[in-house]
C-alpha cells in the first residue's frame, strides 16, 4: 500500500525486509538518536505510537524505540475489527472512548485509515448461542448501546449472497473496521509531525534506574537520559519487564489470517462464525480467519506462568492448540544466556514473523465459500500470522508500577489492541503526565498479577 497524497516523509524511510506480513504504509525513521527525552516509548505498534501522539500533543519530548519496523508485528497483522460488542465489561468504558477516537481519526492524523461503521455480526447456530450473547448484553448494561439480537429477513439483508439461513446473530451497527496496514503508520506520522522522534531498527537493551526511579534507556545506538518510560512492546513486553526485575505474566497466541483479491457482491461489514470470520477491506477484498481456534507456541514462559493461565486454559482448552518447536528451543537458549539473552533476542528478531497455519486457513476459507458462494474462485492474495499478547484474564495492563516510579506498562491486549489502541494510548499518556485519566485505570492495574488477585477471565463472545 502506498503513501497517501497528504503524507509527508520524516527523516529516512526504512525499507521493509523479507516478511510474510502484509505491506504497511511506510513510516519515516529519524537519523539521529537524542541523548535525552521527557519520555521514551518502547515499542512502535499502535499502542506505543498512540501514546507518543498524545504525549507529543501535550508538548513533551518523546522518543519511540522500535527494534524493527513500525507496525511490523501484530499492529498490522490483526483482523482490523473495531468493536465494542463482546468486550470484557472491564474494558467497555475504554472501548467507548476508543470508538469516539476512531470516529475522529481522519481529523486526528490527517489521513483516511479506512475506518467505517459497517457493523459487526456474531453468527448464531442455535438457541444456546443466542442465550450466550444475550448474557453479554445483560452484563454490558448501558454499554450495550445499539447491540441486539437479530434474525430472519433483517439478518438476511446483512448477508447478501448467503447460501444458507443463519439462526440469528448478535449485531452492533455502530461497530466497524479499519485498515491495520494504514492506521498505525498514520498515527506514527502524526506523532512525528507533532515532534515525536521515531527510531526504527533501534532495540532497547536495558532500562536504567537510580534510587529505584527510571533514569535512562540504553539502546543499541547509545543512552537516552529520561525519567519516564512506557513499555508497549506487545508480546515482547514481559521479557522487557524481566530486565527490570518485574514479573508480568503474558504469553503469545499465534493467529493466522489471509486476504483475498477484490470481489463484488460480498457482505459489507464483518462477521464471526464458528468456522470462519471475515472483514471487508478498503481495497474491496476480504480479511479471513478461523474465528474459533488459536495456537500457542510453547516457550519457557509457558511453564513459568502456567499457574496464572490455568483458569483461562480450563475455559478455552477446546479452542487452543499447542505448538512445540523452534520458539521453545530459542527461548531455552536465551534463558541459558541470562539477562544478556533478552537483549540478544530483541536484536536477533527484528520482526516476529510466524508461519501462518495454512491448513487452518484453507478450512476457514472453504467454510466461508460454502456459506457464501460469491467467494468461490476468488484468489487468495496473501497469508500471514501474527502474535497476540495475552494476559491471564484477557484484560490489558495499562498501569504505573509502584516499585518503579516513572514506568508505565501498556500491553497484554489479548487480541483487542487494534480496536482499543487509540484510547489505550491516551490512557497511557495520562498516566505518564499525571493528568486526569480518560477512564478509571483501576481494572488495568499491573499489581493485580502480583498481589494475589486471582485472574478472572469473563466468558467471551
From TrEMBL:
The UniProt record lists the EC number as: 1.-.-.-
Which molecular-function annotations from GO does this UniProt entry contain? oxidoreductase activity
Show where the FAD dependent oxidoreductase domain sits: 38-431
| A Pfam family this chain is assigned to | DAO
* Region described as Disordered: 1-34
Give the source's domain of life in one word. Bacteria
- EC class, as a word, reads oxidoreductase
Q: What is this protein called in UniProt?
A: NAD(P)/FAD-dependent oxidoreductase
Q: Which organism is it from?
A: Kaistia terrae
User: Keyword annotations for this protein?
Assistant: Oxidoreductase
Similarity annotation: Belongs to the DadA oxidoreductase family.
Which InterPro entries does this UniProt record tie to the protein?
FAD-dep_OxRdtase, FAD/NAD-bd_sf
Amino acid at each position: 500500500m502506498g503513501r497517501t497524497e497528504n503524507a509527508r516523509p520524516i527523516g529516512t524511510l526504512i525499507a521493509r525486509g523479507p516478511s510474510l506480513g502484509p505491506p504497511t504504509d511506510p513510516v519515516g525513521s529519524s537519523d539521529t538518536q537524542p541523548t535525552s527525552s521527557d519520555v521514551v516509548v518502547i515499542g512502535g505498534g499502535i499502542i506505543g505510537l498512540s501514546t507518543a501522539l498524545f504525549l507529543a500533543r501535550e508538548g513533551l519530548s518523546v522518543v519511540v524505540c522500535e527494534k524493527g519496523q513500525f507496525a511490523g508485528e501484530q499492529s498490522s497483522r490483526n483482523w482490523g475489527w473495531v468493536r465494542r460488542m463482546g468486550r470484557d465489561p472491564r474494558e467497555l468504558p475504554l472501548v467507548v472512548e476508543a470508538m469516539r477516537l476512531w470516529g475522529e481519526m481522519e481529523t486526528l492524523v490527517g489521513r483516511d485509515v479506512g475506518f467505517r461503521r459497517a457493523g459487526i455480526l456474531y453468527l448464531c447456530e442455535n438457541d444456546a448461542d443466542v442465550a450466550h450473547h444475550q448474557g453479554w448484553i445483560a452484563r454490558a448494561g448501558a454499554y450495550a448501546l445499539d447491540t441486539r439480537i437479530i434474525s430472519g429477513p433483517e439478518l438476511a439483508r446483512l448477508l447478501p449472497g448467503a447460501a444458507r439461513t443463519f439462526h440469528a446473530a448478535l449485531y452492533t451497527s455502530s461497530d466497524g473496521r479499519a485498515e491495520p496496514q494504514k492506521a498505525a503508520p498514520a498515527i506514527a506520522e502524526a506523532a512525528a509531525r507533532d515532534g515525536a522522534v521515531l527510531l526504527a531498527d533501534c532495540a532497547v537493551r536495558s532500562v536504567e534506574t537510580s534510587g529505584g526511579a527510571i533514569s535512562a534507556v540504553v539502546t543499541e545506538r547509545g543512552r537516552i537520559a529520561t525519567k519516564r518510560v512506557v513499555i508497549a512492546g506487545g508480546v515482547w513486553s514481559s521479557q522487557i519487564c524481566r530486565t527490570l526485575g518485574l514479573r508480568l505474566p503474558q504469553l503469545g497466541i499465534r493467529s493466522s489470517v489471509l486476504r483475498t483479491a477484490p470481489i463484488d457482491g460480498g457482505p459489507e461489514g464483518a462477521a464471526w462464525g464458528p468456522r470462519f470470520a471475515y472483514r471487508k477491506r478498503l481495497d474491496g477484498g476480504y480479511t479471513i480467519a478461523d474465528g474459533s481456534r488459536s495456537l500457542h507456541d510453547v516457550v519457557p514462559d509457558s511453564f513459568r506462568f502456567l499457574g496464572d493461565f490455568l483458569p483461562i486454559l480450563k475455559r478455552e482448552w477446546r479452542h487452543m492448540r499447542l505448538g512445540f518447536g523452534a520458539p521453545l528451543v530459542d527461548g531455552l537458549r536465551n534463558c541459558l544466556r541470562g539477562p544478556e539473552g533478552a537483549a540478544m533476542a530483541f536484536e536477533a528478531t527484528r520482526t516476529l514473523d510466524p508461519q501462518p497455519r495454512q491448513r487452518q486457513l484453507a478450512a476457514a476459507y472453504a467454510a466461508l465459500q460454502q456459506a457464501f458462494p460469491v467467494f468461490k474462485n476468488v484468489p487468495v492474495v496473501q497469508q500471514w500470522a501474527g502474535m497476540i499478547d495475552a494476559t491471564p484474564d484477557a484484560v490489558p495492563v495499562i498501569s504505573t508500577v509502584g516499585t518503579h516510579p516513572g514506568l508505565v506498562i501498556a500491553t497484554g491486549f489479548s487480541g483487542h489492541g487494534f480496536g482499543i489502541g487509540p484510547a489505550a494510548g491516551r490512557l497511557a499518556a495520562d498516566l505518564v503526565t499525571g493528568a486526569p485519566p480518560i477512564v478509571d485505570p483501576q481494572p488495568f492495574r499491573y499489581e493485580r498479577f502480583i498481589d494475589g488477585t486471582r485472574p478472572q477471565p469473563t466468558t467471551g463472545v
